[in-house]
Amino acid sequence: MKIQRWQLPMTVVFLCVGILLSLQFQAQSQIVSDLYMQRTENLIAMIRGLSEKRQKLALEIYDLSNKLSVQMESDRDEKQLISNLNAELNKLNTVTGTTALKGPGLTITIENSMPILYIDIINIINELWAAGAEAISINGHRITFHSMIFYTEEEYNMSITVNNLKLEYPIIIRAIGDPNNLEKGLTIPGGIMDNLALFRAYPFLEKVTSITVPAVTEPPSYFFLQEYKPPEQPAATAESQLPGDDYPQA
Amino acid sequence: MSRRWLLSITIVCVISGLFLAFQLKVQANNNNTNPLSQKNTNLVMIIKDLETEIKTQEDQIEKIRNELSNLQNQLTRGSLQELQEQLKAARIAAGLTPVAGRGLIITIDDNKEGLKTNPQDDPNKYIVHFEYILNLVSELKIGGAEAISINGQRLVSTSEIRCVGNVILVNTTRIAPPFEIRVIGSPKLLAEITTSGELDILKSLNYPVSLQESEEVIIPAYKGDLQFNYSQTVKED
Amino acid sequence: MWLLPILGLIIGAVIGSAITFQVPLIYVKYMSIAVLASLDSVFGGIRAILEDHFDGTVLLTGFFTNTLLAALLAYLGDRLGVDLYYAAVFAFGVRLFHNLATIRHALLLRYRQKKYQEPR
Fold first, then answer.
1. Nearest CA to C40 among C81, C80, C82, C99?
2. pLDDT by residue, tens only, chain A of 250 residues
């Protein structure tokens, strides 16, 4: 088709107009939403709305902050509670022997050559408890309430046993506690060391800055024992009637 | 002719130029492209400030809400309960609760009769020494005793039996004869071990000894202190 | 025969929307008067076509000079404190409406002529 003479300039012009128009539209749509071009009363209304919102938000922040501090306190309390309970559990575990422990203390070494019987071991252990030992082990066996210290005879060989396991020499007793007190407890005049010396037995005592005492290998199981819940007493006598309350005092 | 025309035109131009320059100078200070914008600029500034402030507030609210929900989720309900159960079991195992079960009640006393009939004799032969009790307790343990008490003193791992002068102390508490030793465990086994053991020895020394089996031996809780200042748990890897 | 110019318009619009160049808000006013001036040139050109005295050079030169001059005048007016912007709006607005009216007349005339020339 033949292009008429007017079409080319017209096209150019239209092109430019197109560009201008679309630019203008873009700018205009921006203007409509631009803050500066809004009417003053609209701006004032916006300010009022925003102020209200700010107030409400401030209230919310105040509320939430309070909730947070209450929560943190109860959380702290709970953390405190848990840490307290954990501390108590650790203490009990020391008694029941379920955890390995380390600390300063005393070691007592008994050689095969020494004339020492199982009864002497029992006495030594008893004295150690009396002297303030916190945890004791014999050759790696943790000594608790349930530990059985005995002996066994095999072809004229007598061995000391702990929990029915033979002890190999040298027998090393490890006790965690104040090393000085422990040593003093054993070496007081007329005490166990003196008694053993009478039989020419001289166990080797050594104060140590750090010993490790292992946990029990098998926790005990109870076949006869059960927790005892005293029956409900009538309100008049609220005192417990457990044995131990009426033994003659020395 | 062209000069007249030129002159008037020039004068007009000069005056216009003056006016133009003057006006431009005045208007240069007044930057009012938009008559409304002066007041609006301030308002817009206020709005922008409010909006920034509100944004900060909203951020803060989000932060606090997150913290709150974190804390609430952290509520270690589960582990607290677990801990309490462990604690309960540990208390029983450590001896801090009263217990009951089948067992024996053993009573040993000073040989008061013997002392009365032999007043000049060494009184040591007629009183119960702590070693007798220690040996008896040791035998009971070998017999699988699950709980032992002597005159109401519960024995725990750290309990000791000793004497100061003629006074026997258990758990650093004075106890006096007669000594009632309660033990929970297999009545038969315990009776067998002790009767052929320490009780036999005591009987041969004329100490009054009595042994009684019971279906329900009640043993009280340990009421002493548990202070551990030297031991620390070993952290196992 | 109007296809090409309209196509040009569309292409121009597309180019314009693709351009991310944002006119600074302060100058938007001058932009709008420039648009008005350019529209006036366009309709002036259309009128010239219908009245058969179209001159491409006139159209092009008029388009660009009017657009620029209008913007310049409005700006100058702001600097002088005289709202020449409104004078320009008035001037171009009147011409625009006048051109539109003339175009309308010419179209009606053509339409009637065609109708008259149709075989009976």
1. C99
2. 455 677 888 888 888 888 888 888 887 777 666 666 667 777 788 888 889 889 998 998 998 899 888 888 888 888 888 888 888 899 999 999 999 999 999 999 999 888 999 999 999 999 999 999 999 999 999 999 999 999 998 888 888 999 999 999 999 999 999 999 999 999 988 889 999 999 989 999 999 999 999 999 888 889 888 888 877 655 544 444 555 556 654 4
Compute the CA torsion angle A116, A122, A123, A128 (nearest 10 deg): 120
Tokens, residue B19? 């006016």
SS3 B24: helix
* Torsion angle in degrees (nearest 10) through CA of A69, A70, A72, A73: 120
Report the candidate in B128, B95, B149, B96 with the shortest Cα–Cα distance to residue A247.
B149
Q: Cα–Cα distance between B212 and B210 in angstroms, integer?
A: 7
Cα distance between residue B40 and residue B24, in whole Å: 25
Stated as kind and residue range, the H or E segment containing C11 is helix C3-18
Q: Is B128 exposed, middle or buried (0-12, 13-18, 19+ CB in 10 A)?
A: buried
CA dist A184 and C90 (Å) reads 117
> Quick one: tokens of B155?
């024995």
Neighbour-count burial of B221, counting CB atoms closer than 10 A to its CB (0-12 exposed, 13-18 middle, 19+ buried): buried
Report the run of H or E that residue C72 belongs to, with start and end.
helix C56-80
* Structure token pair of residue A38: 């809004």
Nearest CA to CA, how far is A29 from chain C (Å)? 11
Rounded-to-integer distance, Cα A54 and Cα A44, Å: 15
Asked if A14 and C43 touch (Cβ cutoff 8 Å), the reply is: no
Write the CB contacts of A246 (distance below 8 Å, at least 6 apart in sequence): none
Domains, in order of start, for chain B: 99-219 (3.30.70.1880)
Distance CA A11, CA A2 (A): 15
Handedness of CA A158, A162, A165, A168 (dihedral sign): negative
Characterize the bridge pairing of strands B173-175 and B179-184. Answer: unpaired
C chain contacts of residue A12, beta-carbon cutoff 8 Å: 8, 60
The encoded tokens of residue A147 equal 């530990």
C-alpha distances in Å from residue C116, one per residue of B12, B197, C105: 59, 147, 16
Q: Residues B183, B190: contact at Cβ < 8 Å?
A: yes
C17–A22 C-beta distance less than 8 A = yes
In chain B, the residue whose alpha carbon lies closest to the alpha carbon of C83 is: B33
For A99-213, which CATH superfamily applies? Protein of unknown function DUF881 (3.30.70.1880)
Token digits of residue C89:
């709006």
Contact A17 C42 (CB under 8 A): yes
- Is residue A81 within 8 A of residue A161, CB to CB? The reply is no
Task: Identify all chain A residues contacting B76, using CB atoms and an 8 Å cutoff.
Answer: 78, 82
Per the CB < 8 Å rule, is A57 touching B97? no
